[in-house]
Specification:
The protein is 35% helix and 13% strand. The protein is α+β, with helices and mostly antiparallel strands and 210 residues long. The structure holds flavin mononucleotide. The site of flavin mononucleotide has 9 residues, from strand 3.
Length: 210
């Protein structure tokens, strides 16, 4: 499953069985989460009108002719994973966590006071883990999927679908049956994976060969 996953940027446009999509969302929910907080939410767009509204908000007609992955627009399902920072502040203030963080001193205790106190925003980590689980579930289901960023279109996506300010969309997953006839369904970025010794530091940082 892991080695079979590549981003798919072209779909055949055939609607997916809603039960399959639900299964992938349940799989995403099995992702690991800090303090088991599970501070993720998923906006699911699985009907043609909603999918069209998403693309209208993010890719104006005038830019479509130049868009390098036209087959991406045929994805029958779009999922926008959103991270909920406040869930972590609340969770780390709960009794079991609060006892442990109090015992560890002030720095950790601050986690229960404000999202800004978190050096590593676990809501982003966890939502990314859930998204990765969804991507791997898509491989298992014989589907294609592509995670992509929203960039400057985030406000338009928020407005089009009523995503509250408190939730941070981390990107969008396009989901569907791959259209292998379309070259753009293959990963466009041909950067090779470096040899493993270039990214692994054994024993101490700096041991990786360059
Ligand atoms: C955080 C993140 C953002 C990405 N944004 C985009 C994007 O905006 N458009 C896109 O086509 N692919 C995007 N990708 C997919 C990467 O380009 C892809 O994962 C990478 O080239 C490796 O290819 P592979 O996933 O097929 O192995 C993104 C991936 C990640 C993890």
């Amino acid at each position: 499953m892991v080695y079979g996953r590549r981003m798919c940027r072209s779909f055949d446009g055939i609607p997916l069985d809603p039960a399959v999509v639900d299964g992938l969302l349940l799989a995403a929910q099995r992702a690991p989460a800090a303090g088991n907080t599970q501070g993720w939410q998923f906006l699911v767009l699985d009907d043609p009108e909603a999918v069209a509204r998403y693309w209208a908000a993010t890719l104006p007609e005038s830019r479509r002719a130049r868009f390098p992955w036209p087959g991406l627009l045929r994805a029958p399902v779009l999922i926008v994973p959103c991270a909920d920072a406040s869930a972590y502040v609340t969770r780390y203030g709960e009794a079991d966590k609060a006892q442990r963080v109090a015992a560890s001193g002030g720095e950790k205790a601050a986690l229960a006071s404000t999202a800004e106190a978190w050096a590593v925003p676990y809501w982003m980590v966890d939502t990314a883990m859930a998204t990765m689980t969804l991507l791997l579930g898509a491989v298992d289901a014989g589907l294609g999927a592509c995670f992509f960023g929203q960039f400057e279109h985030e406000p338009a996506v928020r407005a089009a679908f009523g995503i509250p300010d408190a939730f941070q969309p981390i990107g969008t997953v396009a989901l569907g049956r791959p259209d292998y006839a379309d070259r753009s369904s293959r990963s466009v970025r041909q950067r090779p994976r470096p040899p493993i010794d270039h990214v692994v530091h054994r024993g101490r940082w700096g041991s990786a060969e360059r």
